[in-house]
Amino acid sequence: MIRIVINGQDVQAYEKETVLEASRRHHIHIPTLCYLKDINAIGACRMCLIEIEGRERLATACNCIVEEGMVIYTDSPKVRSTRKTNAELLLSQHNCECAFCVQSGNCALQHIANDLNILKVPYDKRVKKEPWYQGYPFIKDSDKCIKCMRCVQVCEKIQGLHVWDILNTGARTTVDVSENRRIEDSDCSLCGQCIAYCPVGALRERDDTDYVWKSIDDKEKITIIQASASMLSAWGEELGFERSQKTINKMIGVLRKIGFDHVVNTDAAYDWMLAEEQREFLKRLKQQEHMPMLASSCPSWVQFVKAHYPQMTENLSALKSPQQIMGAIVKTQYARQFSIESQQIVSVSLMPCIAKKYEADLAVMGDAKIGQDVDAVLTIREITHMMRTCHIDIEHMEESVFDVLSGFSSGTAEERAELGDVLSAYNGRPWKEAEFDFYGRKIRIAVATGLSDAAKLMDAVLHQEAVYDFIKVMACPEGCLESVKKISVDDRIKDFVFSLSKELLHTDHEAWDMPCDGYIFRN
Ligand code: SF4
Ligand code: SF4
Ligand code: SF4
Ligand code: FES
Fold first, then answer.
1. Is there a single domain that holds both residue 80 and residue 132?
2. Mind listing the pLDDT tens digit for each residue in 193-217?
3. Where does residue 75 rank: exposed (0-12), middle (13-18), buried (19+ CB within 10 A)?
4. Do 388 and 431 have their domain in common?
5. Could you write out the three-class secondary structure of 84-101?
6. Angle at Cα 463 formed by Cα 460 and Cα 465, nearest 5°?
7. Measuring CA to CA, how many Å separate 342 from each of 208, 329, 333, 349?
8. Does residue 434 fall inside a structural domain?
9. The domain spanning residue 428 has which CATH number?
10. pLDDT tens digits for range 392-424
11. How far away, in angstroms, is 140 Cα from ligand 2 center?
């Protein structure tokens, strides 16, 4: 251990630890903006300034390694005034329209400006707005970018992509799409990770609430929203709810109160997708066609395969994701059940990621007869704004339940049994794998989360260093929240294995009774 002194307090630090890490462990607060543990410690924002006895220049705590006997001040007069000047300079290059910014209340820059009691900025405003395609599922407001580089590093280090870069030098430095491309021409897979880590409101999802309000207010339209219990924790977090208020029945009640005519459960479509996925897999296995089969429920992953492994496009499952399947069910089965025209229905979904907005917009996700399977995708942030617009008193409102679709489970299928030994075959690779015996045939599955690890998996397959029959990838490093029962990698493998049955092996694929008039395939 190394002994240092911070603000007069003796602190034990680990070797090679930064001053910031040591301070955090001892509950000494140092403000940060650009720092992201293990991803971004480049000293860009200069908010984490510290003064070290015996040194003329101030240092940045996020990348200053501790040394024996260091005496550090995190809030000395020199630190305070320089930090304030740095924050004022940042604000002079920032469009401070907090009143209508999605990040307001949850913005690191806003917090710092408040903490430092900045009431005016004594520098000329230098704010530049670059053009951005407003139809893209996420929006960049360049006049809010503080050039912290988090997006650059997150995209590169977590997803192995290089969508963002630093362009120009000196006062003209900006963070923009690399190689001077437009975002729609880049290889962005719409995983949304850069949005999640942007400390200000420079990156945000496209707002589709106006369109949804219009449909709700249109008496000729039936507006149906699909949701799943997996969204509960994100929803509770956005609203700062206690655990007791975070129930699915409350959430359904809120959706009805906002004005949606029907609320259906995405999990019912997940079950359909699983069953159909097994049939497709077994058909391919028997015919040894386009193996390994690549699951297709994560649109970010599908986009990634098409952009980076075009030779594997045929290996992608032909199935749509649960969101799209439920959208098609709503426009067909539901329309029949309630004797309404597909065209009258506006199908909305509540989803955890922007890749779902992109997926819903694809031309192949619908046709002239029913229109798009899903007409609008809302994120938790958007639905929370809709709820606030209606001033819903969540504590005193009625709970509700999902609508029941005839011929479909309510999406509350029982948990599957424990898998026991099947999952024992994990190796030291950055993805998980399992191997099991299926009526005399060895089946090998690999599951990866995060596109950087997915690329390693695909490279191993292409170089024949690994052989699999089925590959599942979820672009988000933490896995997908689309369906409540399937969050973890282990659960995803369990679902796959337990859905495989001998009966399926001997069933003719074409004989299967398709839900929603067969609108479950991507094309
Ligand atoms: S990013 Fe933060 S500081 Fe900037 S306008 Fe939004 S809330 Fe205000
Ligand atoms: S877009 Fe956001 S994350 Fe990227 S550099 Fe700008 S402020 Fe940082
Ligand atoms: S959405 Fe994902 S892939 Fe696209 S730029 Fe952001 S981090 Fe990179
Ligand atoms: S957090 Fe250390 S320089 Fe930005």
1. no
2. 999 999 999 999 999 999 999 999 9
3. middle
4. no
5. HHHHHHHHHCCCCCHHHC
6. 55
7. 21, 10, 9, 16
8. yes
9. 3.40.950
10. 888 888 899 999 876 665 444 333 333 333 433
11. 9
Q: Identify whether residues 421 and 483 lie together within a single domain.
A: yes
For ligand 3, the distance from its centroid to the CA atom of residue 74, given in whole angstroms, is: 34
The residue whose CB lies within 8 Å of the most ligand 1 atoms, and thus the one to mutate among 91, 95, 110, 140, is 110
Nearest to 376 by CA among 354, 347, 345: 347
Of the candidates 516, 264, 481, 492, the one whose C-alpha atom is nearest the C-alpha of residue 373 is: 516
- Reading the block at residue 469, the tokens are 């029959």
Mutation test of ligand 3: which of 153, 163, 356, 379 has the most ligand atoms closer than 8 Å to its C-beta?
Answer: 163
**Residues contacting ligand 2 via CB (< 6 Å):** 145-151, 175, 198, 200, 202-203
pTM above threshold 0.70: yes
Do 355 and 481 fall within a single domain? no
- The string of DSSP codes covering 337-393 is HTT--GGGEEEEEE-S-THHHHHHH-TTSEETTTEES-SEEE-HHHHHHHHHHTT--
- With both helix axes pointing from N to C terminus, report the angle between 380-389 and 209-217 in degrees, rounded to the nearest 10: 50
Query: Residue 231 falls within a domain, yes or no?
Result: yes
Domain that holds residue 297: 289-315+414-518
231 Cβ closer than 6 Å to some ligand 3 atom: no
Q: pLDDT tens digit string along 334-358?
A: 898 889 999 999 999 999 889 999 9
Own/partner contacts of 457-460, CB < 8 Å, gap of 24 or more, are 457/429, 457/430, 457/431, 458/305, 458/308, 458/309, 458/312, 460/429
Element (H, E) at 263: strand 262-265
**Residues 222 and 262 sit within 8 Å (Cβ to Cβ):** yes
Closest ligand (CA of 59): 4
The CA distance from 241 to 393, in Å, is 12
Which position has the token pair 């850069």?
A: 194
In this structure, which ligand is nearest to the CA of 37?
Answer: 4
Q: Is the CB of 154 under 6 A from ligand 3?
A: yes
* Residue 341 resides in a domain: yes
Q: Indicate which ligand has the atom closest to the C-alpha of 83.
A: 4
CA-proximal residue: ligand 1, atom 7 (nearest):
104
235 and 341 fall within a common domain:
yes
pLDDT at position 366:
87
Q: Please tell me whether residues 426 and 454 are part of one structural domain.
A: yes
Do the domain assignments include residue 404? no
Residues 6+ apart with CB under 8 A from 174: 128, 130, 142, 145, 147, 166, 167, 168
Q: Which residue's CA is the closest to the ligand 1 atom numbered 4?
A: 96
Domain count, the chain: 4
- Ligand 3 atom nearest the C-alpha of 190 is 1
- From 91, 112, 143, give the residue that closes a domain: 91
